[in-house]
Design goal:
The chain has about 290 residues and is an alpha/beta fold. Helix content is about 40%, strand content about 20%. Helix 5 packs across helix 8. InterPro entries: Rossmann-like_a/b/a_fold, Universal_stress_UspA, UspA.
């Protein structure tokens, strides 16, 4: 089955930038583009929003206009549109299941009444079993130029980041971009508070060589699969979120993994993904762990 690139739009500048990004990605991958709007009738006492039929017509016209903008730029791209009535999170998670990836604006709600990418967007990340890409309003095709890297975060054992690495290597290969693989590390508390332990650590060769070997081992199968992708191995002491953001300025795309995190107050996307989504200017892809 051919999975489309699916863009969820709500009429905001952010979601229209996401739609433009999704269209370029669909062209790069030779896939169709599906444009989706999650809609539910909303009346307001202070504003004439029309009845349900009128409001739905307005929504369909706006979605159709957004799709026409894409087909004008990419006349050979197969584009379909869907206006789906229902809860925003459930609708977006549902369409993500059938997509190669789901692409959303990074935040905001606009003239088409729809999802607020913020609280809803984070819920979609938690529930979606496919990669979810977030795009800010300022994203432009000019950001996808030579010298702008695909950045991916790697952590833990090779299998812990396999899905994110696979996505990032393919993205870099299709763009002809350098891939920067980032592994951040911190000192265990016993070393942070014990000078004697630090001396023993130095005599053993230090933690950084261990982290470098761990990153190299995780990258090895993907280097073999994508031999033409130039890879920069980046190992740095610090929090993962801070290290990733320190190299975001030269990134055209950032890729982070997501592990299921269930707590007493509900599911969470993790501090690294949360920080990168809020502070990186480039598009960010969150890939669920396989």
């Amino acid at each position: 089955m051919t999975r489309p690139i699916t863009a969820g739009i709500d009429g905001t500048e952010e979601s229209l930038a996401a739609l433009a990004w999704a269209a370029r990605e669909a062209v790069r991958r030779g896939l169709p583009l599906r444009v989706v709007h999650a809609w539910r009738f909303q009346a307001h006492d202070a504003v004439d929003t029309g009845d349900a039929a009128t409001q739905e017509r307005w929504v369909r016209e706006a979605v159709g206009e957004a799709a026409r903008t894409v087909t004008e730029r990419h006349p050979d791209l197969a584009v379909t549109t869907d206006v789906l009535e229902g809860d925003a999170v459930e609708t977006l998670v549902g369409v993500a299941a059938d997509a190669e990836m789901l692409v959303l604006g990074s935040r905001g709600h606009g003239r088409i009444m729809g999802f607020l990418v913020g609280s809803v967007g984070q819920q979609v990340i938690v529930e979606a079993r496919r990669p979810v890409v977030f795009v800010r309003a300022g994203d432009r095709p000019s950001n996808e130029v030579a010298g702008h890297e695909v950045v991916v975060g790697q952590h833990g054992d090779p299998e812990d980041s396999a899905a994110a690495l696979g996505f990032a290597f393919e993205a870099a290969a299709r763009r002809g971009a350098t891939l920067r693989a980032v592994r951040a590390w911190t000192l265990p508390p016993m070393f942070a508070y014990s000078p004697a332990s630090l001396q023993l650590l130095d005599e053993a060769g230090g933690l950084e060589p261990f982290e470098q070997k761990a990153l190299a081992a995780a990258l090895a199968p993907w280097r073999e699969r994508y031999p033409d992708v130039h890879v920069v191995e980046h190992v740095e002491m610090g929090s993962a979120g801070q290290v990733l953001l320190s190299v975001a300025g030269t990134a055209q795309l950032m890729v982070v993994g997501r592990r299921d995190r269930r707590t007493a107050v509900g599911a969470r996307i993790g501090s690294v993904a949360h920080g990168v989504l809020h502070h990186a200017d480039c598009p960010v892809t969150v890939v669920p762990q396989a």
